[in-house]
Amino acid sequence: MLRLTELKLPLDHAADALRPALCRRLGIADGELLDFTIFKRSYDARKKSAIVLIYTLDFTVADEAALLARLADDRHLGPTPDTLYQFVAQAPAELKTRPVVIGTGPCGLLAGLILAQMGFKPIILERGKAVRERTKDTWGLWRNNKLNPESNVQFGEGGAGTFSDGKLYSQIKDPQHHGRKVLEEFVKAGAPEEIMYVSKPHIGTFRLVKMVENIRATITELGGEIRFGSKVERLVIENHQVRGVVLADGATIATDHVVLAVGHSARDTFQTLYEQGVYIEAKPFSIGFRVEHPQTLIDQARFGPNAGNEILGAADYKLVHHCKNGRAAYSFCMCPGGQVVAATSEPGRVVTNGMSQYSRAERNANAALVVEVKPEDFPGDYKTNPLAGIDFQRHWESAAFVAGGSTYEAPAQRIGDFLAGRPSTALGAVDPSYQPGVHMTDLSSCVPPYVIEALREAIPAFDKQIRGFAMADAVLTGVETRTSSPIRIKRGPDFQSINTRGLYPAGEGAGYAGGILSAGVDGIKVAEAVALAMVGQP
User: Fold this and answer.
1) Same domain membership, residue 333 and residue 438
2) Which residues pair with 203 in a beta bridge?
3) Where in the sequence is the domain holding 421, given as residue range(s)?
4) Does 468 lie in the same domain as 340?
5) What burial class does residue 379 get, using C-beta atoms within 10 Å of its C-beta: 0-12 exposed, 13-18 middle, 19+ buried?
6) Domain count within the chain
7) Per residue in 130-185, pLDDT tens?
8) Is 91 a member of any domain?
9) What is the pTM of this model?
10) How distant, in Å, are the alpha carbons of 316, 355, 510 from that of 200?
11) How far apart are CA 446 and CA 386, in angstroms?
């Protein structure tokens, strides 16, 4: 099979135009083309009046060698890479112990799934509830101001990614095509098949719920086990080797292999690991606000006369500005046609995040507008207290709680008022989507002054790229602090903690992923490392 990249066709091309276009591009007759499939479809919207679709196609012809020889100078043509996933090991008939996976976010689920597919019958522990029960608890905060600290946007089956846009694209290097395996498993679990070829695939929250349940069912059918309401209180460590885990109810599970996939908000777990001597270091992350604009404004700015096209869908954006104060301000986790959601996991604190359904049909576009913070910005000495970034997050989340009226309403401010340095007292044309509601105020008390300074410089700069971005009535809602983990649990090339054998830090919480796809890929890599260790291979 061969692959051709960069085949461009007009946005409005006919459904049957691909085959003849491919034949023309290859200089072959229709009869010589035996078959073709779409591997990737993206678009180029730099010319809004003439948007083009860009295809990567896999195809077969009778004589591939002759075609390659004739088109030897074509850098867009070559053999199709082998993306078929190959398992690295198979579990022995008798397992001395079973691997334990802590966490059921995308990293933990994929780690557990791969281990189950190789026959290792993993035990997967989740402190929160099953995804549908968890959804009810999450709505309890959004609709009734009632927070369950163990079952919310951050904790429970599916992880934080369940209540998100369901984005499935990443910029990680993936030479082994693990990302393809992640997408294939998601399609098997009920994701739309288009995620295999569109350039920016997404699923949406409601579809993610059913997918998570189907992955759980597959794991259990293969001999794995998922236990909900099973919070790990501490590890059993002997001579720097994991020997088991102790649960909050006092039960102990013996194991020599623990995958730690707890997500970026398991602050109590990080504290326990640090107290037990597991090596942890502080790392940078970013904080800021969520911004909401009318989705029609973003569509028009990005697609011009093609706004509303079904193939293009709701427009997104990605923005960055390097500020005079030395900070980088940028958009993060953009959710077209979505809503801003309450994402705290601790009482007395306000945290925002973004979410979309598959249709992306809500009235507002939202994204995080954030500014990088470094360990040097954290209180105290991050070298002697690697958990200082957590203290930093908590401080500003508490400030947002107070600014929002000491409820779980979020502090908000119109962009016009924010740029002018005055409090907002009323909403304008943009109706914010955050539940349980917003409290109009001055956001300058919710983040450090250098973040305010950077965003006041960046927003007008972003307006030059997306006309209307600085509209006076667009709404900023605070505060976004959980962009990534504030710590890294350092691991070696064998994926084990550098000072605790048998502990495999993984995913976003350990500082090795950022998003659903990269977390899933990291889960596969760690599962492979565990499998090889359990069969005695280096």
Assistant:
1) yes
2) none
3) 284-480
4) yes
5) exposed
6) 3
7) 999 999 999 999 999 999 999 999 999 999 888 877 788 787 889 999 999 999 99
8) no
9) 0.94
10) 10, 16, 25
11) 23
